Every structure is written in C-alpha cells, then in structure tokens.
Amino acid sequence: MTQGTVVAAADTFAEKSERDLIAAVQQGDKNAYHKLYHAYIGQVYGLCYRLAGDRGLAEDAAQEVFIQLWRKIGNFKGDSKFSTWLHSVTSNVCISYIRKQKGWFQRMFNIEDTDAANEVAEPSSAEVCLDDYIQRLPERARMVFVLHAIEGYRHEEIATMLGMAVGSSKAQFHRAKQLLKEWMGYD
C-alpha cells in the first residue's frame, strides 16, 4: 500500500466518520454535537475574531454560531463539505451578531457611528503582525477585507452579506488595503 493510498483511505474514513457524526447530531445526539463543537470551534472562533476584531465579541459570536448550528443542522443536506457549509453559517451568523451587538452598544451609550469612533491608538510594539493591523481597520473595511482577501468571497457575495452595494464593498476593500499599506510602511 502506497502512502497516497493510505492518505486517501484516511480521508475517506474521516469523511465517513464526519458524516456519521453529523447524522447523529441531526438526530439530536448531544454527545455527537459536543464532538462536532470541539472539532470546529477553533475555525469558527478564528473567523469570528477576524470579522469582529474583538476577542470578547468573537467568543460570543462563536457561541451564537454553535447555538444556530444546533438549531439548523437539519438544513445540512451533504451537497457540499460540512466545513464549507459551516463557514457560510459562521459568516452570516457572526455578521448578524456583530450588527445586533453594535446597535445595542451604541443605543446604550449613545455613541455615534463615525470614523473617529473606529480609530484605534497606534500599537506600542515595534513588531506588529498583519492580524494586528487588520484588527485596527474600521469595522466595515475590516469585514470586507477579511471576507474578500482572506476568506475568498466575491464582492457580490459580500455586498449581499453586509447589505451594501457592490461598489461600496470594493471601496471598503480598497480603503482597507490603503490603510494597511500606510500602517505597514509601503506607501
């Protein structure tokens, strides 16, 4: 048996095992759900963090994703990979969650949604990684940048997800790129 055959067999077993796990969750098996949660929490949290730009908000959004996953797992028909379906669910739930939280926070503290409110002080460390710069971006520019440059969504998809015009998505992406270039010294 060649190494390629072993890898292919392992991938097939993993896919079958995941399908069985998903089927068990769809039947209401909480232990299977727990396993699914632990298998995907890292990926879900990572996307939520990149979209939200705040650890606490990302943690809450990730939990909301898994609440919605429990409720909507029956909608997964297996037409695509589970990870692809979960990525789409995560993006949509996280964006919706951020909007709700931001609206509540603004109403509670009477904060205006301006660029000045989105400005963040310069980091004190001389060594800053790209993720740190991305987190400094204004919210909409960050969301568009993450969805397009990192997650690979088209501007038409992003426009639908964020409720904006395609041109606005492209403009926010351009703005994000310009800010990142400026902050990283590539002007």
Automatic annotation (TrEMBL):
Please verify whether the record's keywords include Transcription regulation. Answer: yes
Q: Where is the RNA polymerase sigma factor 70 region 4 type domain?
A: 129-180
- Keywords assigned by UniProt? Sigma factor, Transcription, Transcription regulation
Span of domain RNA polymerase sigma-70 region: 36-102
Gene3D superfamilies named in the record: 1.10.1740.10, Winged helix-like DNA-binding domain superfamily/Winged helix DNA-binding domain (1.10.10.10)
Look up keyword Transcription and say if it applies. Answer: yes
List, alphabetically, the InterPro entries matched. Answer: RNA_pol_sigma-70-like, RNA_pol_sigma-70_dom, RNA_pol_sigma70_r2, RNA_pol_sigma70_r4_t2, RNA_pol_sigma_r2, RNA_pol_sigma_r3/r4-like, WH-like_DNA-bd_sf
Superkingdom of origin organism: Bacteria
Q: Name one Pfam family in it.
A: Sigma70_r2
Q: Which family does it belong to?
A: Belongs to the sigma-70 factor family. ECF subfamily.
PANTHER family this protein is in? RNA POLYMERASE ECF-TYPE SIGMA FACTO, RNA POLYMERASE SIGMA-70 FACTOR ECF SUBFAMILY
Query: This chain belongs to which protein, by name?
Result: RNA polymerase sigma factor
